[in-house]
Amino acid sequence: MKGSDEKDVAATLVPEYAQTWDKNVERRLVRKTDFILIPLMFVGYSLVYYDKAILGGATVFGMRTDLALSVVVDPTTTPPKVSTQRLSWATSLFYFGMLAGLFPLTYLFQRFDVGKTVGSVVIIWGAVAMSTAGVTDFRGLYAQRFFLGFMESIVPTAFMVIISGYYTQGEQTWRQCLWYSSTGGMTVIGAILNFGFAHIHGAALASWQYLYLFAGALTVLFGIVLLFLPNSPADAWWFTSEEKVVAIERLRRGQLGTRCQKIKWEQIKEALLDIRVWIITMMMGIAYVINGAISGFGPLIVSTFGWSAYDALLWQMPLGGICFVGILLVGYLSLKFRNIRLIMLALNCLPVIAGCAMIWKSSWYRKAATPIAGYSILGTFAPVTSLVVSLGMVNVAGNSKKSFTAAATFTFYCVGNIVGPQLIVTETVGRHYPRLWEAIIVCYALLVVLSALLYFMFKRENSRRDALNLDREEGDKIAFDDLTDKQNLYFRYAY
């Protein structure tokens, strides 16, 4: 017999056997959760993305010069040959910080109260973001970027795990995509904000310093709001007593559970030995190589197509719009059609490959149309990454295993983002940064292959479990025992 601390918190609110519930109550509580959680997460991840993307805008408007992020390596050429390796490292060090923070901070929110833990860390993150305005050279920026990444690492993993505890398996992809779509939405809004701040002249501070003060202050306010986030549906303050029971009961058949704060090391060991977990996490890293380049160098790359610095900022908007619409579209389709996630993932890789080829092989004359069109359709990388995030959560059960998988997924996210900026070699601008586009094309071709492999593995395992003809009522009894997807043969994979 398991102790209460080893079971899901849902086991304290509902009996072992399945209960019927009022569908009207279910619809009402889902609407409540959508109304509260999704906007909160949308704002939160917007801040995460904007915080990273500011660097690209800030470098175009003074930061590169103020902090000596670019160095003239050959003054004899016309124009002088410049190295942006320091900017590449400033971009990459953020993700080294995330790598350092992912597992310890994931442990904290898994072990302790979600709202108080995540909210406190986010407040510190906001303070670190504002401190960027006080940085005076590239070394200080290196340190600031590392600690910024460390603090931010708690947000995506926490959001992934929280969504998986409130929604059914069929509902999760759409909801994960709703908050994740903020990457595209904030690309559009951020371009407008950056454009506005860039026009601040003659003030006490540089325009890029105001950008960081603004973003950091918003983040602190957001962190204060997060302090009131409940631990699970069992103690969600927006539910009535009846709604709490229904909120938990409706998750029983999915066998995913809601929340268990006990760290189970056997589940972490299982995750380490689960090939499907590693395929999903590696897919995240491969998919995010492109983001590391675009978030830090996007406006700089576009400016080399013959556009002004101001125009380069505004050209981030079409890319962001495609990200936003694409994420929402794949999320909505996954809600309406079963098991099309991996098919959509593979299809969205194709425009990315085409976009890279268009940029690389076209002519870069002043205000050239082909490279900017290719750059814009790179936005289909965002639906790819949102589907990878969803796959990791709907196909992993057991709270410790789920938290480990979320942290591992964003570990590889960091690796991809670290690699991306290093592929931009300023000296090869005349040949259109060939190393960058070659690498992205190879990465996205590999994603298509891994999608097909994962589709086959999930489908085969589901067929094997279906052939066992297990008693569904027995499955209802163990739904909140905090079992992993491998331990629980009633669990079915979604692909």
UniProtKB/TrEMBL annotation:
Membrane-spanning regions, if any? Answer: 33-50, 87-109, 121-140, 146-166, 178-198, 210-229, 277-301, 313-335, 342-360, 372-397, 404-424, 436-458
**Record lineage:** Eukaryota, Fungi, Dikarya, Ascomycota, Pezizomycotina
Q: Which range is the signal sequence, renumbered to this chain?
A: none
Which positions fall inside the Major facilitator superfamily (MFS) profile domain?
37-463
**Any idea what this protein is called?**
Major facilitator superfamily (MFS) profile domain-containing protein
Where this protein primarily resides, as one coarse class?
Answer: membrane
In which compartments does the protein localize? Membrane
- Keywords, sorted A to Z: Membrane, Transmembrane, Transmembrane helix, Transport
Any single GO molecular-function term of the entry would be: transmembrane transporter activity
Question: Per its UniProt record, what InterPro entries does this chain match?
Answer: MFS, MFS_dom, MFS_trans_sf
Give the organism the record lists: Knufia fluminis
Q: Name one GO cellular component term.
A: membrane
| Membrane topology, record value | Multi-pass membrane protein
